[in-house]
């Protein structure tokens, strides 16, 4: 991971000394309507990941885990508040609480909650021992607000000791099988994430993080519609104003590739990895691929010093990693 802030004064501190040091609040794209056949549950959890809570909730209600709607996955080592949905009939008269999780709010909704239906995630993070570095952190935050946060996948995407990309590669080669659909998707997405991070490293190394190349795939800011860069100078100005987003490859057999100079860079990276777009067909629809913004905005940043510590708060769009922000702010975290 490359730092956009490496030329600024350094800062250091300790993150996640305990789960309460790292809080996440999920904000839905559309709030539940207050009526309907589903029940939206605002769940607080600590020391449990989302999949574990989904399984526990499903067991408590006599449901299959697939019947529980999830907008986003959240880590174990944090206090997180996120939304899940269940069929309303199944929850009638049931106690909705378990080890490491509890329901804070229940609101009826018309539709099952789907992955990605998140407007943003709000973070509140205590960085212990960082109080003396307040000025450096504020300087680094300003840089990220001005330029955006490199949209790297965080280390938690790659599994224990970073082994999942290799498992994804073995799955595509046919030398390893995943035990279930969830694990297959996990392994393949980790491989795709590793390749995306390598693409982003190269863009930053070559001074192309805030510069458009002919054939780059762009989108209007915070939109899913895409178009090819045909006017690099004008598109670069729009990129720096946050009017458009540069996207990078989540390689897959159905991904829209870049063209021209940008396309040649993408193709060369994939070839150097020993893979091809067609290789991802072995993963079926989990290997379809897509595009991902190269950077995301940092919303509502704030820094408060509390004794020896700094308390940071900020918000990121869905898919952004707070651990990446921390890596940009601190030399050690």
Describe the structure.
- This protein has 333 residues and is an alpha+beta fold.
- It folds into 2 domains: 136 residues, Pseudouridine synthase, CATH 3.30.2350; 139 residues, TruD, catalytic domain (Pseudouridine synthase), CATH 3.30.2350.20.
- The protein contains 8 helices and 16 strands.
- The strands form 3 sheets. Strands 1, 2, 3, 4, 5, 6, 7, 8, 15 and 16 form a 10-stranded mixed sheet that branches.
- Strand 4 and strand 5 form a beta hairpin.
- Helix 4 crosses helix 5.
- The chain is globular and about 60 Å long.
Quick recap:
By secondary structure, the chain is of the alpha+beta class. It is built from 8 helices and 16 strands.
Average pLDDT figure: 95
The CATH superfamily of the largest domain is TruD, catalytic domain
The level 1 CATH classification of the largest domain is Alpha Beta
Instruction: Report the radius of gyration as a whole number of Å.
Output: 21 Å
| Share of residues in strands | 25-35%
CATH architecture of the largest domain: 2-Layer Sandwich
What structural category do the secondary elements indicate? alpha+beta
Query: What's the total number of strands?
Result: 16
Percent range for helical residues?
Answer: 25-40%
């Amino acid at each position: 991971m490359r730092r956009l802030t490496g030329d600024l004064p350094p800062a250091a501190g300790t993150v996640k000394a305990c789960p309460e040091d790292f809080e996440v609040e999920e904000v839905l794209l559309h709030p539940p309507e207050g009526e309907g056949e589903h029940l939206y549950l605002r769940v607080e959890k600590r020391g449990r990941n989302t999949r574990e809570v989904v399984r526990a909730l499903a067991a408590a209600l006599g449901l299959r885990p697939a019947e529980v709607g999830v907008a986003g996955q959240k880590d174990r080592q944090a206090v997180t508040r996120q939304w899940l949905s269940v069929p309303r009939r199944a929850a009638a008269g049931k106690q909705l609480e378990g080890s490491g999780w509890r329901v804070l709010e229940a609101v009826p909704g018309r539709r099952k909650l789907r992955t990605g239906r998140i407007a943003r995630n709000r973070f509140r993070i205590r960085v212990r021992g960082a109080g003396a570095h307040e000025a450096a952190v504020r300087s680094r935050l300003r840089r990220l607000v001005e330029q955006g946060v490199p949209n790297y996948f965080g280390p938690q995407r790659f599994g224990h000791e970073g082994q999942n990309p290799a498992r994804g590669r073995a799955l595509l080669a046919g030398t390893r099988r995943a035990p279930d659909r969830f694990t297959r998707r996990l392994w393949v997405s980790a491989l795709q994430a590793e390749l995306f991070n390598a693409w982003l490293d190269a863009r930053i190394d070559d001074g192309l993080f805030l510069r458009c190349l002919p054939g780059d795939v762009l989108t209007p800011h915070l939109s899913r519609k895409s178009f090819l860069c045909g006017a690099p100078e004008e598109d670069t100005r729009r990129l720096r104003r946050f009017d458009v987003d540069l996207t990078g490859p989540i390689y897959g057999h159905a991904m829209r590739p870049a063209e021209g100079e940008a396309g040649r860079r993408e193709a060369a990276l994939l070839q150097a990895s020993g893979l091809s777009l067609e290789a991802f067909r072995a993963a079926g629809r989990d290997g379809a691929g897509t595009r991902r913004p190269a950077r995301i905005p940092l919303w509502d940043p704030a820094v408060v010093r509390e004794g020896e510590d700094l308390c940071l708060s900020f918000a990121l769009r869905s898919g952004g990693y707070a651990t990446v922000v921390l890596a940009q702010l601190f030399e050690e975290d």
